[in-house]
UniProtKB/TrEMBL annotation:
Superkingdom of this protein's organism: Bacteria
Name the UniProt record assigns to this protein: TesB-like acyl-CoA thioesterase 3
Organism name: uncultured Pseudonocardia sp
Record-annotated Acyl-CoA thioesterase-like C-terminal domain positions: 20-145
C-alpha cells in the first residue's frame, strides 16, 4: 500500500466541484462517491499539474454503506483521468475496462491509486490498485481510454 496522508488531510472532490478545470464537467458520480484526493497528486485541481500520471485518493460511498465487490468496480473507474495530472484536461471515454476483485474489502475507506504508463497516439492506459482499510490489496484494474484532446 502506498503512503498516503490521512483522509482528513486530503482534498474533497465534492467540496471543491467549482475547481474543475475549464471545460471539464464534474461527473454526477462524485455525488455518490466520497473521494478525497491525496494533495500530492491533486495539483491539477489547483492549476498546478504534477507532470506525473498518478492519482491517489481515499474513497467510500456517500450514503455510508460499507464497500463490497460492486463498490470496488465503481471505485476502479471513479477517479479523474490520469492525464489531468499531466495538464491534459477533457473527456477521456473508456474503451476497455477490466477489473480483478482479489478479496472482499474490510469496512471503512478504500485507498485507490491510478497510474498511467502510456499516454500517446490519442490513447491513455491506466492501472488501478485498490486497498481496503486494513491495507490489503482487494482489487486491480486496467483501463484503456481515449486521451482528452
Amino acid at each position: 500500500m502506498p503512503d498516503a496522508p490521512p483522509v482528513e488531510e486530503c482534498f474533497s472532490v465534492a467540496e471543491h466541484r467549482d475547481l474543475a478545470p475549464p471545460g471539464v464537467q464534474v461527473p454526477g458520480l462524485s455525488l455518490r462517491v466520497d473521494t478525497r484526493l491525496d494533495v500530492a497528486t491533486a495539483g491539477w485541481a489547483l492549476g498546478q499539474p504534477s507532470g506525473e500520471p498518478v492519482l491517489r485518493a481515499w474513497m467510500r460511498f456517500t450514503d455510508g454503506r460499507e464497500p463490497d465487490p460492486l463498490a470496488l468496480l465503481t471505485f476502479a473507474d471513479a477517479l479523474p483521468p490520469t492525464s489531468f495530472a499531466m495538464g491534459n484536461f477533457g473527456w477521456a471515454p473508456t474503451v476497455q475496462l477490466q477489473v480483478l476483485v482479489r478479496a472482499l474489502p474490510a469496512p471503512g475507506w478504500c485507498l485507490v491509486e491510478a497510474r498511467s504508463s502510456e499516454l500517446s497516439g490519442g490513447w491513455v492506459d491506466e492501472d488501478y490498485r485498490i486497498w481496503d482499510s486494513t491495507g490489503r490489496l482487494v482489487a486491480q484494474s486496467r483501463q484503456l481510454a481515449r486521451a482528452p484532446r
